[in-house]
């Protein structure tokens, strides 16, 4: 059996090669940018006034002038005006271009406006005050963003400001989710006493939806011939298979053998971890990957979080997420496996503290209902005192 670290390395050696597609800007949030974004003009593109008030020449104020006759008013969106007389002022609005021959803006709050004259009541006027200088944020031609970042609302704003109505992003892989098992029924059905609803398929579909992947949903019965025929069709139409169940030691766990008959090469089967020990991972021609997630709901969930998500991030050129939390309680366990524990997180004196959520095992789906994260306790040491810093997967 291989360790969690080895398993993850192997998974990451089989990244998907994702093509680049163009989407409308307003549909790009959450997607991964696949292009460089360059400032098409200076940021800001002109000396931008930052307060509503009057624009003056600071030198005029410095030699003792307080009352400035108003030459005109300049609104945001109007072309730049020019102060004709250095003893005068121009009324100016936030977002307007600074008028030529002025170099300071005094806010209305510091002025008295009467008879077409603004009298400055402030003690001081500093050259450059309330002016956002052209190019002070970024210069035209500067790289604002490189590819390999998830598009946030702030990025959408930046893309909009450089005029990118269409954005290049990595296309998401085509994913099929397959539940397996003759005990499973559709969610709208009333299960007989020996049956359960196929909740894992929906849990995985929801998780993928959070990644902007609309997966197709399938079910495979515990009959090798039917399983094979269905899988053949599914493989032809998808790049990634997320399978739940049928990977352990049971008499009806046919998945590994059926996959092999379809050209599957196992990269690993079984990981030294709990839950999720029976996980299967491998490849199918050409460049397709299969995640055989163990059927117990918490195992399915944990393996998805710990292997599929890092695989997807790496395929999308995103940097890995690393986080740690401190254990709120001491924990001891055996045998020597990596233990993934659903935890509740809270802030304790400025540190992230994790409290394990009690559960009855990996069949206990309710144990992850309130989980904010998964702690992964390595096989050694087997005793972790309270306060130990432990790797955390944020959910
Ligand atoms: N002799 C051994 N038995 C088992 C081992 C082992 O090492 N030796 N490993 C155990 C572990 S750990 C797990 S996890 C399970 C994994 O089993 P499978 O991946 O083969 O999954 P199934 O047998 O199909 O189902 C297990 C369990 O999960 C329920 N299930 C399956 N799919 C769904 C679904 N879509 N929605 C809800 N629940 C689902 C299924 O009904 C079973 O109760 O094997 C142990 N056994
Ligand atoms: O380890 Mo299994 O994945 O717990 O039920
Ligand atoms: Mg089984």
Describe this structure as you would to a colleague.
Residues 176-314 form the MoaB/Mog domain. InterPro entries: MoaB/Mog-like_dom_sf, MoaB/Mog_dom, MoCF_biosynth_CS, MoeA-like, MoeA_C_domain_IV, MoeA_C_domain_IV_sf, MoeA_linker/N, MoeA_linker/N_sf. Catalyzes the insertion of molybdate into adenylated molybdopterin with the concomitant release of AMP. It holds the Pfam family MoeA_C. Keywords: Magnesium, Metal-binding, Molybdenum, Molybdenum cofactor biosynthesis, Transferase. The structure is a single chain. The protein has 7 helices and 28 strands. It is an alpha/beta fold. The chain has 4 domains: 4-18 and 172-315, 3-Layer(aba) Sandwich (Molybdenum Cofactor Biosythetic Enzyme, Chain A); 29-42 and 139-170, Molybdopterin biosynthesis moea protein, domain 2; 48-132, Molybdopterin biosynthesis moea protein, domain 3 (Molybdopterin biosynthesis moeA protein, domain 3, Beta Complex), CATH 2.170.190; 324-394, MoeA, C-terminal, domain IV (Beta-clip), CATH 2.40.340. The strands form 8 sheets. Strands 7-4-6-5-9-8 form a 6-stranded mixed β-sheet. A hairpin with a 3-residue loop joins strand 20 (280-284) and strand 21 (288-293). Magnesium ion is lined by residues 246, 248, 250, 253, 295.
| CATH fold node name of the largest domain | Molybdenum Cofactor Biosythetic Enzyme, Chain A
Can you list the ligands bound to this structure?
A: ligand LQZAQKY5, molybdate ion, magnesium ion
Beta-strand segment tally: 28
Q: Could you give the order of strands across the largest sheet?
A: 7-4-6-5-9-8
SS class: alpha/beta
Q: Could you describe the largest sheet, including whether it forms a barrel?
A: 6 strands, mixed
Beta-strand content estimate: 25-35%
Looking at the overall shape, the CATH architecture of the largest domain is 3-Layer(aba) Sandwich
Oligomeric form of this entry? Answer: single chain
Number of domains: 4
Shape: elongated
CA-atom Rg in angstroms: 31 Å
Can you give the helix content as a percent range? 10-25%
Distance between the termini: 27 Å
């Amino acid at each position: 059996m291989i360790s969690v670290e080895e398993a993850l390395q192997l998974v990451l050696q089989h990244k998907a090669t994702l093509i680049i597609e163009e989407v409308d800007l307003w549909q790009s949030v959450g997607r991964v940018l696949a292009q460089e974004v360059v400032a098409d003009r200076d940021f800001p593109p002109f000396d931008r006034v930052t307060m509503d008030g009057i624009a003056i020449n600071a030198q005029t104020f410095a030699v003792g002038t307080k009352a400035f006759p108003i030459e005109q008013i300049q609104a945001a969106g109007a072309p730049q005006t020019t102060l004709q007389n250095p003893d005068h002022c121009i009324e100016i609005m936030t977002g307007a271009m600074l008028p030529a021959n002025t170099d300071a803006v005094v806010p209305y709050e510091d002025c008295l406006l009467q008879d077409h004259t603004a009298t400055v009541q402030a003690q001081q006027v500093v050259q450059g005050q309330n002016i956002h200088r052209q190019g002070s944020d970024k210069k035209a031609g500067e790289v604002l963003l490189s590819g390999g970042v998830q598009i946030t609302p702030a990025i959408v704003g930046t893309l909009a400001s450089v005029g990118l109505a269409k954005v290049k992003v990595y296309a998401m892989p085509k994913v099929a989710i397959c539940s397996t098992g003759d005990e499973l029924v559709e969610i709208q059905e009333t299960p007989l006493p020996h049956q359960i609803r196929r909740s894992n398929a929906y849990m995985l579909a929801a998780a993928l939806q959070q990644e902007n992947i609309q997966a197709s949903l399938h079910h495979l019965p515990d009959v090798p011939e039917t399983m094979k025929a269905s899988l053949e069709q599914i493989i032809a139409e998808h790049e990634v298979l997320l399978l739940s169940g049928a990977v352990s030691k049971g008499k009806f766990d046919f998945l590994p053998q059926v996959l092999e008959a379809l050209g599957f090469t196992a990269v690993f089967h079984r990981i030294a971890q709990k839950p999720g020990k029976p996980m299967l991972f491998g490849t199918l021609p050409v460049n397709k990957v299969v995640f055989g997630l163990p059927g117990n709901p918490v195992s399915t969930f944990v393996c998805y979080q710990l292997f599929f998500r890092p695989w997807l991030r790496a395929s999308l050129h995103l940097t890995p997420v690393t986080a740690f939390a401190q254990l709120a309680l001491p924990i001891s366990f055996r045998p020597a496996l990596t233990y993934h524990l659903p935890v509740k997180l809270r802030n304790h004196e400025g540190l992230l503290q994790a409290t394990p959520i009690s559960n009855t095992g990996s069949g206990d789906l309710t144990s992850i209902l309130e989980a904010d994260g998964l702690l992964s306790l390595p096989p050694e040491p087997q005793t972790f005192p309270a306060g130990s810093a432990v790797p955390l997967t944020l959910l």
